[in-house]
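Predict the 3D structure for this chain.
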Amino acid sequence: MELQLIKAFFLGIVEGVTEFIPVSSTGHLILVGKWIDFQSTESKTFEVVIQLGAILAVIWLFRDRVFKLLKGSIDRDPVELSFMRNLVIAFLPAAVIGAIFISQIKALFFHPGVVVVTLFLGGLIMLWVESPSRRQGKKPSAVSLETISWKQALAVGCAQCLAMVPGTSRSGSTIIGGMIAGIERKTATEFSFFLAMPTMLAAAVYDTYKHAGELSQADIWVIVVGFLAAFFSALFVVRAILAFVSRHTYRAFAWYRIGLSLVVAYFIF
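Done. Predicted structure below.
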């Protein structure tokens, strides 16, 4: 039991570190979990619920902006209502697709081989989006959260659906999807963080409710340890990634994805 808790703690740190950078937290949890031989009665539920720890870290860090959004929406502030509308629009595609197909997606795609392919392809797409030739002469039309259009929000929401396949990366698909739609890099990153709040909260609550009766006491302690590790590690990473994207592109993460996919492919195949 003690060894299992140590593994859960380690995986929680992996989740907190990778959830908000475009390298796929789920993909890393699958690969690392297989590497350390992590066994849980409901390992897939563990993977989803510990993501809630990382999301709560974001809510805490952005608590002032979240409060402003909620208060402005209640007071019918047009700017905050527009932002709330965009979050709802971006949230709905993944909510609908996930509610209908999430069981089939988990059964078909939660495998290291799938992670290898999606890590590699995602890296190539990121290199293309961040290429100097593509960015040259193209100025983003949305440079703040308040200037994102509903069409751009919908594009981000559709891109988020791709993240249900492990290795794609929820943050990666929404950030890159936003940049393709004309949102400035740092703004796309912040919007991705805000979109993660309802998306991952809904996923964690749904998965916990669905499998609550199947979890043993040992599973619950494993989840609690992983949850706390994800929360505290994410507190550090979110600040760091916002500072990073203010000065750098995502090309480094693209090369990391490609390199990791090749290494894992070598050991698998």
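The two ends are 32 Å apart (CA to CA).
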